[in-house]
Specification:
The structure holds two protein chains of two kinds. By secondary structure, chain A is α/β, with parallel strands linked by helices. Chain A is built from three helices and eight strands, in the order βαβαββαββββ. Chain A starts with a strand and ends with a strand. Chain B is of the alpha/beta class. Chain B has helices at 17-34, 59-70, 91-99, 115-122, 138-152, 170-181, 211-215, 239-246, 250-253, 276-279, 286-306; strands at 48-53, 74-78, 105-110, 126-132, 159-163, 185-189, 205-207, 220-223, 261-263. Chain B is globular, with a radius of gyration of 19 Å. Classes of the chains: A alpha/beta, B alpha/beta.
């Protein structure tokens, strides 16, 4: 930890936020019927797995979890732009008629969410898509808003917000870098 | 992970092990698209790809075209009978005329080895090799690597036998380049008339006197097509004799490891380089190769679009 970094949430803080979000998801959707969680690679996919564990504890029922890689749907892939490796999309079930909760770690410009929604639509027509994020740092460039937020953090454009995961892909802290 | 720096893919010889690993990793993840209901992603929307095929092809051209369309690129196909080459236009002139229509990638197959290096000097768009003479066929090489990696989970340390007409085979050259870079052991067998001079300069390969020696305990047996269109008439007495010494049948396949893969780049001359029993048998991965071809070509087109000028 250098002096340019501030811890916004520690491990127990993240846990409490995810537990609250799990309750809110269940309350909004009245249980787990037709509910699926899709995490955005890579941080969002790890958080989706954590949320699924929380929901299973609260409700006693498992929800299907998938992961979406948005590289192929990005709006900034141009000729001679940096060449990004493509991650794996794993959605082992149909999204037709499902209530999809899209999960990401940090909500920033909203462009990633736009790309992820396009990707989901190519896997079928869900009944609805809701958005859950651990951190909302503002600076939206598209008309996108999260349904479930762990913490709202006002930031400047120069700052960077990072969710740190351990080797088991569990979130350990959220750091603000100046 | 490493970034892909190449604007053109002309030969696996020009790529590093890291480049090949990246292309294979991307191809593995592209496969998910091919199993969806909606087999399309918007990645190369607005890109124009010209498939310029001076030699006959079904598999490769169709595969490149499907790969381009699944990435939302627009494709134009030019085949020998419809091109101005029949009216005497040079390759350089054809290239400059095509370039004036602003394509982003030219995928070319040409009968002359090295034609793509000539093309790449003339144009500013990306050039992807779909086979040049007896030089290389990089997309086939990569899909062969991917198919082997699917089965064994690795390429390092595999024993791969390549049997047949090595001299005229661009597939063999790309396979040798790719396999030796990835740490596989390559064993070659074929009639002396079809074994190129100084073959060891292609990479660290072992040339075997007999087919038996090459396929003994092999993990992979790669059979090559007899390229009658490229050969003179004197390289082999007849197909029956060739088949007796260098054909793969259920009997000699037992020399390889019990779970060995049988591969062939196609089109197959049934009864010459492979018996129908082997082609249709449980160890044959011929159609798996074709399936992987689309994903590999999607990865190639994707990565050259982000590559830098060399």
């Amino acid at each position: 930890m250098t002096e340019n970094q501030t811890v916004l949430l520690d491990e127990s803080g993240i846990k409490r936020a995810l537990t609250r979000i799990s309750h809110e998801i269940l309350e909004r959707n009245k249980g787990v019927q037709d509910l699926v969680l899709i995490g955005i690679r890579s941080g969002g996919a790890f958080l989706a797995a954590e949320l699924a564990k929380c929901i299973a504890v609260i409700e006693g029922d498992a929800v299907p979890v998938g992961a979406v890689d948005i590289t192929l749907y990005r709006d900034d892939i141009k000729s001679h732009a940096p060449n990004l490796p493509v991650g794996k999309t794993e959605i082992g079930f149909s999204l037709q008629g499902k209530k999809v909760v899209l999960v990401d770690d940090v909500l920033f410009t909203g462009r990633t969410i736009r790309a992820a929604m396009d990707a989901l639509m190519d896997h079928g027509r869900p009944e609805c898509i809701q958005l859950a994020v651990l951190i909302d740092r503002g600076h939206r460039e598209l008309p996108i808003r999260a349904d479930f937020v762990g913490r709202n953090v006002p930031t400047s454009l120069k700052e960077n917000v990072q969710v740190v995961f351990n080797e088991k892909n569990q979130p350990v802290e959220v750091v603000l870098e100046k | 992970m490493a970034e892909f720096k190449h604007r053109n893919i002309i030969a696996l010889r020009d790529l590093t092990r890291e480049d090949i690993e990246l292309l294979l990793a991307t191809a593995e993840n592209m496969r998910e698209i091919n199993s969806r209901d909606i087999k399309k992603v918007p990645t190369l929307r607005g890109k124009t790809i010209i498939n310029l095929f001076y030699e006959a092809s079904t598999r490769t051209r169709t595969s490149f075209e499907i790969a381009a369309k699944r990435l939302s690129a627009d494709t134009v196909n030019i085949s020998p009978s419809t091109s101005s080459a029949t009216k005497g236009e040079t390759l350089a002139d054809t290239a400059l005329n095509l370039l004036a229509m602003k394509p982003d990638i030219i995928v070319m197959r040409h009968a002359v080895s090295g034609a793509h290096y000539h093309l790449a000097q003339k144009v500013t768009c990306s050039v992807v090799n779909a086979g040049d003479g007896a030089h290389e066929h990089p997309s086939q090489g990569l899909l062969d690597l991917l198919t082997m990696k699917d089965k064994f989970g690795r390429l390092d340390g595999l024993k791969v036998a390549i049997v047949g007409d090595i001299t005229h085979s661009r597939v063999a050259r790309s396979d040798i380049q790719g396999l030796t870079k990835m740490g596989s052991h390559v064993f070659l067998a074929g009639p002396p008339t079809m074994m190129p001079p100084a073959v060891e300069r292609l990479g660290s390969v072992t040339v075997c006197a007999t087919m038996k020696e090459a396929i003994q305990d092999a993990d992979v047996v790669m059979m090559l097509r007899i390229q009658q269109e490229r050969q003179g008439k004197t390289l082999m007495p007849n197909a029956r004799e060739y088949s007796r010494y260098f054909g793969l049948n259920p009997e000699n396949l037992k020399l390889a490891k019990p779970d060995a893969m049988v591969m062939h780049p196609g089109p197959i001359n049934r009864g010459v380089e492979m018996s129908s029993y082997v082609v249709n048998g449980s160890q044959s991965h011929v159609l798996k190769q074709v399936e992987n071809g689309v994903a590999v070509r999607m990865a190639m087109l994707y990565h050259v679009c982000g590559g830098e000028l060399e």
